[in-house]
Amino acid sequence: MTDATPVSPRMERGIVLLFVAAGLVMGFTLALPGVRAAIGIATGAGGFSLLTEAPVATDPGAPILSARYESAWVITDALSFGARTLLVLGTAAGALTTLFTIGALMLFFLLLMWRRPFHRALVVATRVAGASLLIGGVLSAGLTGLGRMMAASELNPSAGDVFVVGSAFDPAWALVGLAVLALSVVFSYGTRLQRDTEGLV
């Protein structure tokens, strides 16, 4: 049986560069909608969603017992500075969270490609990813939620009180951040064990 043809250093560098380029494109692609949304809200040309319980108009003979809208997409330039600032900061925090998380994942896969699964940088990468998902997700949801509540309160007088002064919070990303932080502890123990093993050889 013959051995597999080894990968040349030039080919390996090309694969790494291709992977980094693909990761950068993916990161900017995922973060671009958040950046555009933040710019649109700041200039008044972009929209944002508000909770509502407005009833849906149905025909009298329709087989529907009840129907209500859950959210409305609003574009306005009449928001106060505080409400607009909170919405922009919350949306921008979400975009930054995406960039930090993608960057940490890129470093994670690069270390795997370099056959260094328990490198110290991997611990840093998982901690950055976990903290970004946990802190950034909560910060983005909190700022955006406060901004939506302020916006609903300000727009209700001219919209017939159709908007709900409240906000929805999805804890899924915070739980994922906690799981990634727990994984960083595992990688930290693995790095320490690898260092001790290398010292015995």
Describe the structure.
- The chain is mainly alpha-helical and 201 residues long.
- 68% of the residues lie in helices and 5% in strands.
- It is built from 4 helices and 2 strands.
- Strands 1-2 form a two-stranded antiparallel sheet.
- α1 packs antiparallel against α2 and α2 (81-113) packs antiparallel against α3.
- The longest helix is centred in the last third of the chain and has 40 residues, at 120-159.
- The protein is elongated.
- The mean pLDDT is 81.
Order of helices and strands: HEEHHH
Structural class: mainly alpha
Beta fraction of the residues? under 5%
Biggest beta sheet attributes: 2 strands, antiparallel
Please give the number of β-strands. Answer: 2
Low-confidence residue ranges: none
Rg (C-alpha, Å): 24 Å
So what's the overall shape? elongated
Alpha plus pi helix count:
4
Q: What is the CA–CA distance across the termini? A: 30 Å
The residue fraction in helices comes out at: 55-70%
List the main descriptive attributes of the protein structure presented here.
elongated; 201 residues; 68% helix; 4 helices; two-stranded antiparallel ribbon; mainly alpha; 2 strands
List the helices and strands and how they pair.
Layout: H1 9-43, E1 47-51, E2 71-75, H2 81-113, H3 120-159, H4 172-200
Helix pairs in contact: 1-2, 2-3, 3-4
